[in-house]
Amino acid sequence: MPIQWRKVLAEFLGTAILVATVVGSGIMATNLTKDVGLQLLINALATVFSLGILIALLGPISGAHFNPAVSLVERIFNRLTISLTLLYIAAQIIGGVSGAVIANLMFKHSAINASHHQRNGVNLFLGEVVATVGLLFIITLLTKQKRGAIAPILIPLWIGAAYFFTSSTSFANPAVTFARAWSDTFSGIALASVPAFILAQLIGAGVGTLLALGVTND
Question: How many Å apart are CA 156 and CA 165, to the nearest integer?
Answer without folding.
Answer: 14
